[in-house]
Amino acid sequence: MPPEARRWRRFTSVFADSVEAAGYECIIPPMFEEIGVFQRLGDATDVVTKEMYDFVDKGDRHIALRPEHTASVCRAFAEHRPVVPWKVWYSGSNFRYEKAQAGRYRQFDQVGVEVLGVDDALLDVEVIALGWEFFQRIGLRKVTLLLNSLGDSGDRERYVSALRAYFEQHRDSLSDEAKLTLERNPLRVLDSKRESDRSVIDGAPTIASFLSDDATAHFGQVCAGLTAIGVPFVVNERLVRGLDYYRRTTFEYVSEALSSAQNAVGGGGRYDGLVEDLGGPATPGIGFALGVDRTLLACDAEEVFSESTGLIDAFIIDVVDGQTALSLSTSLRLAGFVVDRGFDGRSMKSQMKAADRAGARCAVIIGADEHEAGTCTVRNLATSEQITIQQSELATHLATVVGSRTPRRPSS
Ligand code: HAM
Question: Cα 373 vs. chain centroid, distance in angstroms?
Answer without folding.
Answer: 53
